[in-house]
Amino acid sequence: MKIAKFTTQKKNQDRLNVFIEREGREEFAFAIDVDVFIKYGLTKGMELEDDFVRDVLEAEEAQKAYKLAINYLSYRMRAVSEVRDYLVKKEISEPAIKTAIARLQDQRYLNDAEFAKAYVQTKFNTSPSGPVKIKRELEQLKIDPEVVESVVSDLTHEELLEKAGKFVKRKQMETNRRSATEVQQRIQQTLVQRGFSFDIISEAIQTFWEEEDTDVELEACLKQAEKLSRKFNGYDAFERNQRMKMQLRRKGFPYDVIERTLNRLFEEES
Questions:
Q1: What percent of the chain is predicted at pLDDT more than 70?
Q2: Alpha-carbon distance 18 to 32, whole Å?
Q3: DSSP per-residue letters across 124-156
Q4: How would residue 215 be classed by pLDDT, with cut points 50, 70 and 90?
Q5: I need a surface site. Which of 55, 118, 230, 245 has the fewest CB within 10 A?
């Protein structure tokens, strides 16, 4: 085969169509990136051996992988595994993926340690996620376990306590319609799901939970009792009273608050 001519693609000036001469006629052979064209020094009239063409096409595949990855990285930082998965979906060959990733790592466009560090700070500052959840997410991205442990441990005790504490203070407002016990249980469940340790959660509740005003808890209990009264309206007074006590206790209200609430409710009804 002999190169007959090159033409620039209309839609992409960085790509060239290569035509060869075969049996006195010109025919399209393949398309390559201009960087590959320069690297291999292709010229009109050059004789093309099969091994040489194979090397050129492998370089073209690697260049394609590299440019796809560069575009993918232009939106935000990525883990190596994300780039690999993306190129696999684009049906890039494994050798080309390896070559492109190695090139990107050499140029520091890809660095799992730097990615993990930025990921932790971004997640912690802009989402409700705690360290356990963030660690799990990084492991799912196939970041080296030692790197994960190192970057997650950079979160200080004070930072974790402050974030959990803000949640405690915000959720305590719900005591106007729920018992303090129930609200605290909900806080614990939510913070565990978000990836905070039991030690941090307990300390946050002890530190940031403000002592309840008895009247506030009484009003919350009364709201629940009014709902239960309607629910158990079909029972006689004694049975309704027992069922309401049991339900209110399950919701975490203290016995003395329940007694005061029911007395007040029944006084209003009589």
A1: 96
A2: 8
A3: HHHSS--HHHHHHHHHHTT--HHHHHHHHTTS-
A4: low
A5: 230
